[in-house]
Every structure is written in structure tokens, then in C-alpha cells.
Amino acid sequence: MFYINTEIKFSIITKTDGDFNTSHLPKISTTVANKSRLLCLVTTQPANHATKALAVKETWGKACDILYFVSSEMVPELPAIRVQCEKYDHDHLLCKNIKAILYGLNKYRNQFDWFFKADDDTFVIVDNLRQLLDKHNPDTAIWFGCPFALGGNRNKTYPSGGAGYAMSRQSMYLMENALKNHTKCRFLNLKNRETGADDAEIGICLNELGAQIGDETDDRHLKRFFPFPPNTFIDKTTGFYEWFNVYNVNPVQKGLNCCSNTTISFHYVPSNDMYIYDFLLITNNQIQLKSCLNNLNIMFGDQRDVLGRHRFIPFSLQYLSNHNSNINNTGTNEYKSVFILF
User: Fold this and answer.
1) Are 60 and 125 in contact (CB under 8 A)?
2) Cis status of the peptide bond prior to 79, with omega within 30 of 0
3) Which of 2, 12, 285, 325 has the most CB atoms within 10 Å of its CB?
4) Cα–Cα distance between 65 and 62 in angstroms, integer?
5) If one looks up domain 38-272 in CATH, what number appears?
6) Domain map (residue ranges) of the chain
7) What is the Cα 121 distance to its own chain's centre?
8) Which DSSP string do the residues of 24-77 spell out, in sequence order?
9) pTM for this one?
10) Per-residue model confidence as pLDDT tens digits over 148-169
11) Nearest 5 degrees, angle CA 325-CA 329-CA 335?
């Protein structure tokens, strides 16, 4: 099961005198020091600016050192850059993403150690990503992601674009140099064509450059990057797509043991669910109870321990996402909870 492997004990203070006192609350410190500087690029489109892109910006995107989007329209508020391509459909993602990657490399050249590329429906647990990357030297050519077999050949792999992938700055420099000198990565120069699968082409380039494929799995050999949402892997009643069985390199089983406790990403996550995941995972260093309680109308169950503390909180994830009201009663209750992501 994928979960936050921490038991959290905290006090819930209900509304009194129109405000909350949170000074007594414990700090929740992450296990990851921000050693590596992370530059994040997210691909989006105008129809998603106010939904998916905004959800990324307001959730996991805040944990990046630098976040920018690429679209067919420039939106400074996100911020989203606009790149020039023949078209902006799915077939032209190669043009869109390669130009956006090179833009980020040039603009932020000395401001990042690792470059992370994702889609606007990818949810990322950045603390877990940093924990993985901090174990490696960004001055070596290496990449991390969900490795797919190129053409079904498991000796050559490429990173699944939807699951997101991280490239060291050295990998980026080698790619840039190859494009300038026209030595390798010939399909990335966009002179002959702008269409193609950008993740596969980048994988071909990384293979040509001799970049190392970093191990995405944990010490139990469980995957960390996923090209589908959590239910695809947890639900035992359905099978995987046949193409996934052919191309996926690192084995994954159905059920609660599908995913690493330090999972990094899921793809095809609706924007509303991003806010739910972000709330449950508590990615910030402090539990933001004041903000949460001001915006949630929570009813608590009567499953108490010997000290009168509640153990079960009977609200659904969708309830958290859709309700926006205040708690009306007053008083203080102690709760002892372990948040689990289903």
C-alpha cells in the first residue's frame, strides 16, 4: 500500500472567537533537506490553464525550486511560455517539449541540479523525488523515471512522459551539445520534422549519449513512477493494458503492495484529486490546520480510544474536495490518525 509512513498526532482546534490558535501545534518536518535544486517543466494547453495547470501550481508545483509551463499561449501568471511550432496538437509534442526544455536550460542554466518534466495531469510527491535524487551526483549523466522498452526491446529504454522523468544537469548539457554540433540526437533538432513521441525521442537521445538509467525502485524492488492513477494498480478486478505489459520494464503487481512507500508520481490524475492528494500527504513542513479547518466542514465519528480520542474520521476524499464551510461547534479534541491514500 502506498501511504505516508508516519503516525501523526495532533490537536484539532475548532473555531473560537472567529479565529484559530495554532501556536501549540507540532511542526511536521520532512526527511528531505533541499540539497538539490529542482527545475520543473509542465506541459499544458489553454483549455487546461485554469484547471489542471492551476492545480499543479497550487499543489506539488510549489515544492519545485523553479516551476514553469509550456503552452500555445503565454500566461505570465502560471507562468507559461509559448513556443513556436507548426501545430499544437498531440502529434507536435516533440516540438513543443524540446523547445521548452532548451528554453529552461538556457534561462535557468546555473539555477538547477535536476530537471523534471511532467504533464499537467501528473501528480508528483516532490519530497520523495528529492530523496531519490539527493543520493546521486547531478554532474553525471543519469535519468530517472518509469522506464519503457523502446520498441519492446528491453535493452534500450526511454522514460514514460506521463509519469514524469528527471534528468541530471549533465544529461541536459550533453543533449544541448549534441544538438549544437549535430553529432547525435538528430531527431531532436526539429529541422526535418516536428512530430513524434517526445519521450521516446528523448530516450533515444539519452541512450546515444550514454546516459545511465537510474533505478526507480526502492529497497523492496517496488516501482516509484507510475503512468496511470493509483486505482489502476491497486484494483485487482481489472488487468493492465496489454501494451503496458509489453513496454513496462520494472514489474508491478496488482493490489495494495503495488507501489513503493516512497512513490514519486502518478499520471492521469484529475485536478480535483490533486488537491485531495496534496491535503492527505501534507507535503509542507507544518500542518496547516488553520487553513484546513476554515475550509472544511468535518463530522467526526464516535470511535474513541480509552482516553476518549477519536480513531476514525468518516469523511470521503470527494467530500474534502467539494465542501467549503466552517466548523460550528467549539472545543478541543485529540485525534490520532494515519492518513492512507487509496
Assistant:
1) yes
2) yes
3) 2
4) 8
5) 3.90.550
6) 8-26+288-337, 38-272
7) 9
8) TSPB---S----S-EEEEEE--GGGIIIIIHHHHHTGGGGSSEEEEEESS-BTT
9) 0.73
10) 998 777 878 889 999 999 999 9
11) 90
